[in-house]
């Protein structure tokens, strides 16, 4: 079916928020919904009315205000089936149909129960005012319960952490959310073509949605600090330098590629290079042997900055060319003193060829170099029986062609996750239209 052309204004008005503008709100709540056995026509009608009118989802065209609430709505494959929506365009990738738990080869013995049950939809609510978020949550849930739509409800709460400079950090203390794909040009104009090609899914109604991934990673802060001290002692380096080799940056955000101390962040002669690195404009060409930033460092594993690899052109089965980057929209969570971590969230046009490809790189002992023993991602590499035998190569002296092996123990554990689709407002309008058409057919038959 040919698609309708949309103007730039209508494009932003129908695209959900949080995709092109990162959600910087202090409080986030991810609400997982399991639909009741209500009929598909009732589900479609109430959901469409709820998120188009009564609890209208926030769009990319809405001007973000400090006091405003941001709300997004997502559907899983099972949710689409419950609504009896056309899922033809979602059948190509089996993993979305199966869901994350059934599709990924991850250690799942420690997955939380909330991630083991069926999820039909998800709400993302965000606000700088905790009371405002709670009020909005209660209003939506009470409404949906009253209409008989919900079987179960589970949620995760995220809350921003900040350093002394007021910058976003995660529980290990590192700056977070620094580098993003360049969907905004230097003239601050949105690169719509790049955004559509690499991060959005074109719908048959002319709107654009995006595939959404969420994962809960629990961080063991004490174990991380102990392992860093052990690594520093074995290599004869500072704990700050050891920790930077795990992440690829120092805690203050200073790229390890450019210096071996966090204090270099203030050096005038490095400012241009730092800005280029943070803007994703500087690659690792000057560090081909991993003597400055190890190949296994988390940000190098997840974004090797290799144009050929990241272009998506290297796989013959790819039906369209796009970047292998993802739009990351994560936030820390604090469940208790023992339960702290990260709610990883991302948008992409293709889960298998973007998000899951990054997971493969995460666990490859030979990536991105052909040399054996580079090691898996020390932060989020998959736990396996061979984990402790993988001797990752660490840098005892920055910039010198020498490495020392060390196995980094588990300090982060995946507690669960799920796949969703973030539809356009035109998609939601179509849900309502389907129901009107069905009613018309019934009336005509009578």
- Report the strand count: 14
Rg on CA atoms, Å: 23 Å
Main sheet summary: 6 strands, antiparallel
Helix and strand run: HEHEHHHEHEEEHEEHHHHHEEEHEEEH
CATH class bucket of the largest domain: Alpha Beta
The CATH architecture term of the largest domain is: 2-Layer Sandwich
Secondary-structure content class: alpha+beta
Poorly predicted regions are: 1-6, 314-319
Outline, from the CA principal axes? globular
Whole-number mean pLDDT: 89
Number of domains: 2
In whole angstroms, the N-to-C terminal distance is 31 Å
> Helix count, per DSSP?
14
CATH topology of the largest domain: Alpha-Beta Plaits
What does this structure look like?
With 446 residues, the chain is of the alpha+beta class. It has two domains: 11-218 and 416-445, 2-Layer Sandwich (Alpha-Beta Plaits), CATH 3.30.70; 220-314 and 362-412, no CATH class. It contains 14 helices and 14 strands. It has helices at residues 8-14, 40-54, 77-82, 94-98, 100-103, 130-146, 192-199, 221-235, 239-247, 271-278, 298-302, 307-310, 351-362, 425-445, and strands spanning 27-35, 70-75, 121-127, 150-159, 161-162, 168-169, 201-202, 208-219, 327-328, 331-334, 340-348, 392-394, 404-406, 412-422. The longest helix has 21 residues, at 425-445. It is globular.
């Amino acid at each position: 079916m040919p698609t309708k052309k949309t103007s730039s204004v209508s494009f932003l008005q129908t695209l959900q928020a949080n995709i092109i503008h990162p959600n910087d709100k202090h409080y986030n709540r991810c609400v997982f919904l399991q639909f009741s056995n209500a009929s598909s026509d009732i589900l479609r009608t109430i959901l469409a009315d709820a998120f188009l009118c009564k609890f209208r989802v926030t769009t990319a065209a809405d001007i973000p205000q400090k006091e405003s609430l941001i709300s997004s709505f997502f559907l899983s494959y099972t949710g689409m089936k419950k609504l009896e929506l056309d899922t033809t365009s979602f059948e190509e990738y089996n993993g979305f149909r199966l869901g994350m738990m059934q599709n990924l080869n991850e250690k799942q013995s420690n997955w939380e129960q909330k991630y083991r049950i069926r999820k039909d939809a998800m709400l993302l609510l965000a606000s700088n005012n905790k009371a405002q978020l709670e009020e909005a949550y209660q209003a939506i849930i009470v409404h949906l319960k009253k209409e008989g739509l919900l079987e179960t409800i589970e949620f995760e709460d995220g809350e921003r952490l900040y350093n002394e400079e007021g910058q976003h950090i995660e529980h290990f203390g590192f700056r977070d959310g620094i580098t993003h794909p360049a969907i905004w040009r230097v003239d601050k104009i949105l690169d719509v073509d790049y955004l559509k090609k690499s991060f959005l899914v074109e719908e048959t109604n002319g709107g654009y949605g995006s595939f959404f991934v969420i994962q809960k990673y629990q961080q063991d802060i004490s174990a991380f600090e102990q392992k860093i001290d052990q690594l520093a002692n074995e290599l004869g380096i500072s704990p700050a330098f050891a920790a930077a080799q795990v992440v690829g940056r120092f805690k203050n955000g200073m790229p390890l590629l450019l210096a071996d101390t966090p204090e270099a962040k203030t050096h005038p002669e490095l400012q241009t290079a730092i800005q280029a690195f943070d803007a994703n404009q500087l690659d690792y060409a000057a560090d081909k042997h991993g003597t400055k930033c190890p190949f296994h460092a988390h940000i190098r594993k997840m974004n090797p900055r290799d144009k050929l690899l990241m272009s998506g052109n290297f796989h013959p089965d790819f039906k369209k060319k796009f970047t292998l980057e993802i739009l990351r929209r994560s936030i820390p969570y604090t469940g208790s003193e023992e339960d702290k971590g990260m709610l990883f969230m991302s948008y992409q046009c293709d889960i298998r060829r973007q998000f899951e490809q990054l997971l493969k790189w995460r666990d490859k002992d030979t990536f991105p170099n052909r040399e054996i023993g580079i090691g898996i991602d020390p932060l989020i590499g998959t736990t396996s029986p061979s984990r402790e035998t993988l001797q990752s190569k660490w840098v005892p002296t920055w910039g010198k062609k020498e490495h020392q092996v060390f196995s980094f123990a588990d300090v982060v554990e995946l507690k669960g996750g799920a796949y969703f689709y973030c539809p356009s407002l035109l998609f939601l309008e179509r849900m309502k239209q389907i129901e009107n058409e069905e009613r018309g057919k019934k009336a005509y038959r009578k």
